[in-house]
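cron nightly-structures :: item 1 of 1
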Amino acid sequence: MDAVAHIPRYNLNEEDEKKLILREYRSLLKALKSKLKPGDKNLVRVAFEMAAEAHKTMRRKSGEPYILHPIAVAKICVQEIGLGVRSTICSLLHDTVEDTDITLDDVQREFGTEITKIVDGLTKISNIIDVDASQQAENFKKILLTLTDDPRVILIKLADRLHNMRTLDSMKREKQLKISSETVYVYAPLDHRMGLYNIKTEMEDLAMKYMEPDVYKDIARKLAETKKERTKFINEFIKPLKDKIEKAGVNAEIYGRPKSIHSIWNKMKKKAVDFEEVYDLFAIRIILDSPPEKEKEDCWKVYSLITDEYNPSPERLRDWLSNPKANGYEALHTTVMSGYGKWVEVQIRTKRMNEIAEKGLAAHWKYKEGKVEENRFDKWFQQIREVMSSQETDSIDFLQDFKTSFLADEIYVYTPKGDVKMLPVGSTALDFAFAIHSAIGAKTIGAKVNHKLVPISHKLHSGDQVEIITSNKQKASEDWLKFVVTSKAKGRIRDSLKEEKRLVADEGKYALQRKLEGIDAQFSQQNLDELMQWYKQPSHVDLFYQVAIKNIDLRDLKKEYVTGGKIEFPKPVKPVQEKPEFIPHHQLAERKDTELVIFGESSDKIVYNLANCCKPIPGDDVFGFVTTGKGLTIHRTNCPNATKLLSNYGHRVVKTKWAKNKEISFLTGVKIVGMDDVGVVNKITNLISGELKINISALTIEAKEGLFMGNIRLYVHDKEELDELVQRLQNMQGIESVERYDTEEKPV
């Protein structure tokens, strides 16, 4: 994980800097112009001057004046999210209380309670998630409480994160990885849930630029190369549609937009195809100018006109007009076959729907004015409040639960009476039961889905009608946590288990008390702490519980451990560590403690483990992770677990790079697909073992219907050697694809 290439330093003189700052400030005012009421301009100016004065000595990593950052955040809030004057003032001040001498009292005196409250919320979030050594998830609940209190806090924070991502080039490599991982793990899903699709897309693309730089550049290059051809195709596809829609008297704009690099990459991975095989590199968007009362009718009318011209795929129709997404997204999506034999996605929405799709929650407020009914965001906030009121889980678990419960796509499920319940994708019958009521969830023994009896672990689908079957004898089980996905269900199950555990622990507490009295030891805090450490229990309750269920044998407690009422166990003797002897070649590939990696700023070599989840080899972009009880583990930066580790445990990540060593081999694997032919196996093994002198550990070949699939495990010295092998195999006649795989299991 080396530092990024040197970026030319920012080098404007003082006069030019002042001009630049003033230019950016005027640009902000221009963007805000339509939203300014009498007196607002003066308030914005006061906020700008206060921030400029407070940050006057501060610089960003790039070298530019710090004040440019809050101005940029304010512009994103206005132009890309659709927020107004109050949010602009808060954006300009969002770092002042945390980083400068300005206090909340100063803000209160100048701008009043509303703005102070938002600035305070932003300061708390920064203290929670932006400190170098903090865990991303540690106080995530506080962020969510702020969200439900005033969502503008989160919207401004999302704008702040977007600008940080746009200016990430000036950061060190390890910092780029940590911030990008946090962005993908928390911020992009939050963008999605808030309805900010454009910002979500940009964040994902920028994160990918740093986490998967080679793939990102490759897809970006291919998109640029195919732009001319793509534009021609879009124009020819749109032309007959334009004619039809105009003839029908519908006022609409039609244009094509490319899919994001990140979404193309996801499709390539999901479908295991190359860039050239991804059919929907772009989407056609039709925006209608329709009055509110005719929106649905006009959208379906346009759908009919499209399907008259092109054949639709029935399975690819998405009706979010009748059932909008939980974040308010409304549209009609269909995929049709073009005249060139390519599938094309067409999105149909009105101007109002489009504004909500692009500006999410902020647009909702605009259209909510004058309406009495509770919108979907209000319901969502209420659900979060409900879950958080009883949550006492580990913060990492909570963050994961929150992601699956509140940031995932939704399904619509019906009660026996026809009431609709919205649940995250992957929800089970038990999740549904807890969604109805906690007491029903705790007593659930089964369910009827579409009138058929199913177990409580049965996964639900949109449109299912569910009837819950309960019993007063039923109790929550730890196994339930393995298949429920909603925060509410997990929280209630954990609460029940905790209560059950506490009752059992009371019996253990009584038994331990009697035992300590019998050996003349005090039932004191100090002694309990000593016992807790000796038996490696995380809390007193766990200690009592283990005593109660006989996992701790109290007969092991003897009088010789007691002095003056205090328990003192003998201190364990540390074993003497022997230096590992040198083991040559392929034997060393199986070793977990090979001295090969350099850490930190020094050139000290250190003993480490290679992660089984991604099997890094020299040349891979890697990071070190301090694993509890296992020491240092090396992961690839594109490891399936990297995002979670880097975002949640940034303080346990160690800067890492490979040392040069050609004497050591590493086990990896390649998957080969090609045309089945006589002698193909011989050609492959001759290339690997004969020409390239690479040792093969295992080889399996399966032939079916004229195709063969081979999985080869082999020892390589570094990534360079592996890349050469892959390239040589790809150039062989009859070989369709060659991919690296890294897990212990065979690739599917």
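cron nightly-structures :: done
The chain has 27 helices and 23 strands.
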